[in-house]
Amino acid sequence: MQTIWYRTGDESWLRLTRFFGTLMLINFAIGVATGLVQEFQFGMNWSVYSVFVGDVFGAPLAIEGLAAFMLEATFLGLWIFGWDKLSRRVHLATVWVFALGTWLSAFFIMVANSWMQRPVGSTVTDGRAELTNIGELLGNRLALHAYLHVVLVGLTTAAVVIFGVACWHLLRGRNVDLFRKAALLALIVGVPISALNLVVGSRLGIVVTDYQPIKISATEALWDTEQPAAFSLFQIGGFTKDDQTPSFDLEIPKLLSFLATGSLDGKVEGINELQRQAETQYGSGNYTPPVRTTYWAMRIMAYFGTLVFMVLALGGFLYWRRKLEHARWFLWVGLLSIPLPYLAALSGWVLTEIGRQPWIVWGLLKTTDANSPSVSTTTLAFSLGVFAVLYGALAVVDFVLMRRYARLDPPELGGEGDEMPLPAVSY
Amino acid sequence: MDLDTFWFCLIAVLWSGYFVLEGFDFGVGMLLLFLPSRERGEEDRRTMFQAIGPVWDGNEVWLVVAAGATFAAFPAWYATMFSGFYIALLLILVLLIVRVVSFEWRAKSESPRWRWVWTWANTIGSVGVPFIWGVALASLLYGVPLNSDGDYAGNLADLLSPYSVFAGIAFVLLFAFHGATFLTLRTAGELHQRAERAARRLAIPAVLVSGAFLVWTLVVAMDRNDKDLFPPALPAILGIVTLVLAAAFLFRERNGRTFAMTALGTIAGVATLFTSLYPRVMVSNPDFANSLTVENASSSPYALKVMTVAALILVPIVLLYQGWTYYVFRRRLGGETTVTS
Predict the structure, then answer these.
(1) B299: exposed, middle or buried (Cβ count in 10 Å: 0-12, 13-18, 19+)
(2) Chain A partners of B100 at a C-beta cutoff of 8 Å?
(3) Which of the residues A114, A204, B9, B26 could staple to A145 if both were Cys, CB 3.0 to 4.6 A apart?
């Protein structure tokens, strides 16, 4: 938005930049606050894991801090406070550098996470993993797919939020010209990106099948190997080892084969067979992730992701026919779609992480063996309680503030010359 | 120098960076309740927030990087320290979270009560966090119970020794002084004078307590960590000299030099602590043999080499652009007329 303002000189884009910039900052506070917890908790709760993985997992994390987090924090500060201290061009550059920081940050995080899913570039010596090839670690095929997916999800979410907020203002009929522009930008980004994301997401599914087949078959509640395999749209029952046949099942033939292998006639191995294979490889034990959770997480993710695309595509169609601001029912749909990408993204993470169980590092370390021996259950329960309360309170305040600021009229621009006030963003 | 030692030094540098930078914004946070005048309190507080507004986030990242570097270079140290100091770190996290959102959310409502809550939140965080870091880092040297696997075998009370609590107090006083000095450089008008008065009042106690802490550190190092007086005495002497100079410059109204000296004093303090630790990273007491060392806690040579390359490229770049940030925001705030320093 700021770039368009810089290029065209059209001040409505500046007003939009500030309006949505404020919303971003309220959210960013939460990200900063909770990011540190994420980093500390590895050592606090998972000390065995930390010792085991530090050599490999620590490197992308440390580089992320140094390369990306520093960029984000410093240049965001420059952007917020630099409106009247930097030339327009330099000030615009700060927000681009900030964005670069977030892209880098996501990359290193996905490298670290993907190593937990598919440990490459390392060997296990003396009971701990050691980095042997940084190129393999950074070039992990899974990491590249997952990274692309995460970035597209981020862009889609942003587009849906901007579009939803714009819909609300169009519903109210104020600042219509301004928010038509915001909606258009959101659609231009959101329609192709959310469509592309559906493709990338299913590509990721095929890659995951290569490395973690049991995750996929658990996700699909596919107990017995099938060729070709049907995709279950909705089923009741059939989620446990003792109850493998659903009492109701709505299926699309051959679709799972396509989603998991890329071919309509591909063979998809079932849980029972993969469990047997894992027992031969790792000794007896349960190697099946929770089927019910992953099944529904995948469906919430996929259905909401598709829904998001349909909403945005319909928005694009209405915009093109110049009916967007008159179709009140659709503006409501746009507004109410705001939670969808969040729920989809959350489900995606549930799928990825729960689907990895019982492993914390795939094939190398089990979650049950990875926690801190010196931390008692009481302490853990206490800290979990503290964070539940704290995060709950933060979420409520965040929501209230976001709503309040999303409802405001975008700031009018002050007089020329003297310091441009930025009331909502400065302290 | 082998890579283990290099990373030990680099982590010391990162902690120094963290305390020099976030030290003054902690100090400003502590003074939020005391410095503003009765009549124009809200305006003063806002100026104080603005003085650290553009930079506090970048400052805090030094902690993120210090912790990340410890994880990557010394996984066993990271794991034992973070799981062992569980409650202390939990407190730090809670206080930091509250402090972070106080920055972002305080101005989001006009209500005096809302602002009062977040001002207090910021001050409590700004006092509590450096105090707990002081206790935690001093405990690394003072020694905590570790078992033969290098796991923590104590509880929260094992962190609280007279020495570690004194370290916490020294950190708080030093940063209050450091922050007041920072404000003398970043403000103008009446607030500037108030900041100067506060700095003068804080100077003597801060210098005395910090100096005493440095001496005590040497005693603990020799007593409990099998160290000689040298080399740890070198940074300790440097620290005492710079802090005395800081006070001297302050009373001659050379505030820029005062700030340089409090910053140097902070660095010397971290250096004293880390030199006293080396080659151990976490002293075990009573079973000294269980101590974690630079050698037995470090990552593989290959991983260290990869990260060394990354650090040598990235650290100078970070220093460059963070330095540029301070240059951009060099203008003083508040007062009737804006004075350029």
Answers:
(1) buried
(2) 29, 32-33
(3) A204
Q: What are phi and psi of A60, to 5 degrees?
A: -60, -30
Kindly report the length of chain B: 341
> What are B177-206's pLDDT values in tens digits?
999 999 998 888 888 898 999 999 999 999
Q: What is the 3-state secondary structure (H, E, C) of A50-103?
A: HHHHHHHHHHHHHHHHHHHHHHHHHHHHHHHHCCCCCCHHHHHHHHHHHHHHHH
Q: Within an 8 Å CB–CB cutoff, is residue B186 touching chain A?
A: no
| Domain spans in chain A, listed from the N-terminal domain onward | 144-374
Helix or strand run (H / E) with residue A128: strand A128-131
Question: Residue A140 in contact with residue A210, Cβ under 8 Å?
Answer: no
Half-sphere exposure of A330 (CA within 13 A, CB side): 17
d(CA A257, CA A251) in angstroms, rounded, equals 12
Structure letter (DSSP) for residue A289:
P
Give the model's confidence band at A365: pLDDT under 50 very low, under 70 low, under 90 confident, else very high: confident
**Chain A residues in contact with B328 (beta carbon < 8 A):** 78, 82, 85-86
pLDDT at B162: 92
Phi, psi (rounded to 5 degrees) for A361: -120, 120
How many domains, chain B? 1
At A43, the pLDDT band (50, 70, 90 cuts) reads confident
Most trustworthy range by pLDDT among A67-76, A169-178, A408-417, B171-180: B171-180
d(CA B330, CA B341): 7
Q: DSSP letter string over A347-370?
A: HHHHHHHHTTTTEEETTTEEGGGS
**What is the pTM for the complete model shown?**
0.83
ipTM: 0.80
Say how far apart CA A291 and CA A223 lie, in whole Å.
10
Q: Which residues of A touch B321 (CB under 8 A)?
A: 71, 74-75
pLDDT attached to residue B264: 93
Q: In this structure, is the dihedral angle defined by the CA atoms of residues B23, B25, B30 and B34, taken in order, positive or negative?
A: positive
Q: How far is B101 from chain A (nearest CA, A)?
A: 6
* pLDDT number for residue A423: 36
As given in the structure block, the two tokens for residue A110 are 């996905």
Is the sign of the CA dihedral B80, B82, B85, B86 positive or negative?
negative
Length of chain A equals 427
CB contact under 8 A, A58 and B152: no
A69 compared with B207, residue with greater pLDDT? B207
Would you say residue B220 lies in a domain? yes
Q: Which domain holds residue B13?
A: 3-328
CATH number of the domain where residue B22 is located: 1.20.1630.10
- Provide the b/e sequence for A270-291 (b: ≥16 CB within 10 Å): bbbebbeebeeeeeeeebbbbb
Contacts of B315 (CB under 8 A, 6+ apart): A66
Per-residue tokens: B233: 């005495």
User: Does the residue B65 lie in any domain?
Assistant: yes
Query: How would DSSP label each residue in B37-106?
Result: -STTHHHHHHHHHHHHTTTHHHHHHHHHHHHHHHHHH-HHHHHHHHHHTHHHHHHHHHHHHHHHHHHHHG
For residue range A306-351, what is the model confidence (pLDDT) as tens digits?
Answer: 888 888 888 888 888 777 777 778 888 888 888 888 888 888 888 8
Which 3 state secondary structure label does DSSP give B253? coil
